[in-house]
Every structure is written in C-alpha cells, then in structure tokens.
Amino acid sequence: MMNIWLIKLEEPVPQDADYRPYRMGMLERELVANGHSVVRWCSDLNHLTGLHRYGVTCSVKYSDRQQYEFINSGVKYKSAISVGRIIDNFLIKLKIRKRAKELRAPDLIVCSMPTPALCKLAAVLAREYGIPLVLDCRDYWPEVILAEAKGWKALAARLLAFKMRRDLIFACKQSHSFIGITDFFTRHLLKHAGRHPTRFDVVFPLGFDSTAIICSEQNRQAAFGFWAAHGIALGKGQRVVYFAGRLNRTVYDAIEPVVQAAQQLAEVNPDIVFVLCGSGSYQEAIKERFSCLSNVILPGEVDATFLKVLRDYSVAALQPIDRRIDYQNSYSNKFFEYLSSGLPIFSWLDGISGQKLVAEKCGYIYNSSAELIEKMSMFFDDDDLQVEMSSRAKKLFAREFEAKTVYSGYARHLDAVVEESLSRTSN
Asked: Mean pLDDT score of the chain, rounded to an integer?
C-alpha cells in the first residue's frame, strides 16, 4: 500500500465543525478505504470561518492511515486573490519544505493547482524523492489574476502572473499526470507543459457526496421552524426557486434577469418564491435590487442541514453566474448539489454547465430577462415537465457526478500512475 501526500491548503478537514468533504477530502476517503496512507498538507487557518484551528504549526494523527500537517503562517486574508494570500502561501511553502524533511518519504504527491508556487514546491519534492507528481487543476491561474485586477493593481498582477507562469511551467514539466475538473483545465496544464496529452492526462469533475449531510428528525423540525420564520411554509403550496452560494460580484453582474423575472412572476404566479442563500461582498447590493419584492428572500448564511431541507422542498434552482471564461468552462460545487436534489437549473452560464443541462434536458440557458420569464412560465405551467426534468437531473448526477463514482475512478488512476512510474524506473 502507498503513502500519498495531498497538498491543498484551504479545504475543510474532519476536525472542523459541521465537516463536509471537498475534493481532497473525498479523494482521501477513497484512498484510505483502499488501504493507502494519506498525509494531507493544510493551512491551520480554517478558510470557511476565518479562525485558526490550533494556532500553531502542528501534526495531527487522525487515524492509523490519516495524518494532517497543519501549517500556520501567522497571516490572515479575506480574498482568495489578494496580497495576503500570496504572503500566506509563501510562508507556508517555506514551512512545508522544512517539515517535509522530517516525514517518511511519500510514494506519490497530488498537488492542487492553484497555487503555482505550491505546485513548484511539490515538483521539487517529487524530484528529490524520485516519485511521480500529479497536478490537479481546478482554477484558471494565473490568467484569472490578470482578468480580475483593475487600476494600479493591474501592474502588480502582471508581475505576479509572470512569476506564476514560470512556477507553473516548472511544475508541469516535472509532472507525470494532469487532472482537470473539466477538459479545459487539463489542457491548461498541458499548455504550460508544452506537450501533447497522454493516457495519464484526464478529467475528474469535482463531484458531490449526496450522503454527507444527514438530517435527523430534530434537524428537520428545526429547519421547518427556521424557514417558517423567513416566511417559507415548506410543503404548504409555495414553489421555491433555490440558490445558494457566495453573493459576490460574479453573481451581482448576472442578477438583473432574475430581478426582472421575480417582478413579473410576482404578479402572475404569487406562489413562486425565490430564495437566495449566502453572503459575500455584494450581499447588500444584491439585497437592494430585490428590496421591493415580497417573493424574494435572502436569509444570509444558512446551516447546511437547513439548506438540504430547503432543497428537498424546492422545484428548481438558479445559476446566475457571470460569463467569465473560467466559470464557463467548469461546474460549480452548487451545480452538483442542485442536480443531486433533482432540481432543474435555470442557468445564465451558457458554457459547459449550461450546455450539459440542455443536452440532458434537465435545465435551461437564458440570455435575457424575457427569455428567463418565458422559460420559467413554461416550466411552472407544466407539472409533468417538472417531474420529468427532476428525474433526469437525478439520473445525470448519479451517472457522472456522485462522489463515489468520481473518486473511485480517481483512486484507480493514481494506482495506474504509480504502477507506470515504477515500471519505467525498473526498465
């Protein structure tokens, strides 16, 4: 059995309250179930709460085959794209380098991209140990850094992007395998490697564990009370259109068609309620856009079990996300959640997620307020259509995006990478 290092700083870990596994957590679980040992390299900073887990750099043995290396940089940052994150990553990189020398050598390293700097460090370590490296790409760095930087930050972003490209090129040229959450991201790594794809350059979507949230009867009753306090009587005839996510600029820039649709539907279908859950830098601005509408509810951050109960009683979901190139070429975490609950999706994104919905007949793309209103009216006027689209959404999720399906394949792929590397070394 192998000793595998997983490098991804920001994800939740089992020690966190209300833990729900993200990508590395779901992969870790599959690897451990297959008998492998896993060391996860994590930031001591819990990026969901903004609080430090232990307050120091430390090693925690969670089970016989699970170990967590928590690295504390002493730096906090609020934005995923910020100077604070860059400093944090730099200091953490130095501490990982030092701590790695004290541990048993791994048989394989899987490193998430971003960040390019950590990918370079992983490449250096893999070369020193003489083991294969797998890069797992889920964000369009450094290009997105340039796209998001405005004003005086644009110059700094160009300098930073130059350094990132150099780091990423170095890492890609050392890597044995590229994994992307979609083909777009696998090709992004191949471009920096300057080579053609091999059988070890593949796609594994993010996926979602539909069994991760367990709702007790007590949880359900608490959820019913919570939503009733916000004016939503679950199961009492209201038809809920659901959204959950960060209320940031990418949502704000795509929210106007939803505003117009909510205004018109309030007059002809008063039983339809739009519920937009979450918080973010544009939360107040988005709330202001809906301020005169009684059929739109913004409850802020909501407990995961309460969200699950709401999804179970919703009839459709929204994907009002700005058509930025990286969003157009990926699936969001929420996309999988919606499908797992059998929610047909109305999507502003017309890239791969929107095209998937249309191809599988479990959602719609809209290009204007009028188009969203037209498609929603058609959908809500046809009960049979709602049932059919819901069924297709669940089948699509089970076939392509259920965590067990995705990460059992991912684990087998890692076995094949190591097997090929050992074979090449012996020859």
From this structure: 94
- Mean pLDDT to the nearest integer, 313-336: 96
- Strands (E) located in 221-376: 239-244, 272-277, 296-300, 314-319, 345-347, 363-365
Distance between first and last Cα of the chain: 22
Q: Which of 124, 127, 103, 114 is nearest to 38 (CA)?
A: 103
Q: How far is CA 323 from the centre of its chain?
A: 17
Closest residue by Cα to residue 330 from 242, 247, 391, 401: 401
CB 21 within 8 A of CB 13: no
Residues paired with 51 in a beta bridge? 46
Helix (H) or strand (E) holding 334: helix 333-340
Q: Express each pLDDT in 344-373 by its tens digit.
A: 999 999 999 999 999 999 999 999 999 999
Query: What's the CA gap between 187 and 173, in Å, rounded?
Result: 14
Report the distance separating Cα 89 and Cα 83, nearest Å: 10
CA 22 vs CA 159, 278, 308, 324: distances in Å: 31, 18, 17, 23
The pLDDT assigned to 79 comes to 63
- Above pLDDT 90, what percent of the chain? 82
Domain 3-207+403-426 annotated CATH 3.40.50.2000: yes
Structure tokens at 125: 């370590």
Lowest mean pLDDT among 22-36, 154-168, 232-246, 286-300: 154-168
Q: 3.30.1490.480, 3.40.50.2000, 3.40.50.720, 3.30.70.20: which CATH number matches 217-401?
A: 3.40.50.2000
pTM, two decimals, is 0.92
